[in-house]
Write a structure and sequence with these properties.
The protein is 64% helix and 0% strand. With 87 residues, it is mainly alpha-helical. It has one domain: Helix Hairpins, CATH 1.10.287. It contains four helices and no strands. InterPro entries: Papain-like_cys_pep_sf (IPR038765), Prot_inhib_I29 (IPR013201). Pfam families: Inhibitor_I29. Residues 12-72 form the Cathepsin propeptide inhibitor domain.
């Protein structure tokens, strides 16, 4: 179990390096890692369906894998409220 956690920690560190991710605080990094782990789980579960022929496409992790849904929608630097106010 500890080895699996170390492997996931290493995977997260490698992903951060690949995508140039740096966080302002330990709390922010913990939040982003939690989101990343949830995304990773969804990708793994989806790809099991792909492997078994239940899906026609494969998923992967990308530079947005540590973002919440509203951040993907509106962009990291703008909140959805700012987006609405510009309209």
């Amino acid at each position: 179990m500890a080895s699996e956690r170390q492997d996931v920690d290493k995977e997260f560190d490698e992903w951060k390096e690949k995508h140039g991710k740096k966080y302002k605080s330990k709390e922010e990094e913990a939040k982003r890692k939690k989101i990343w782990l949830e995304c990773r789980t969804r990708v793994i579960e989806h790809n099991k369906k792909y492997d078994s022929g239940e899906s026609t496409f494969e998923c992967g992790m990308n530079h947005m894998s540590d973002l919440e849904q509203h951040e993907v929608c509106c962009g990291v630097r703008r909140s959805c409220q700012e987006e609405k106010n510009d309209s």
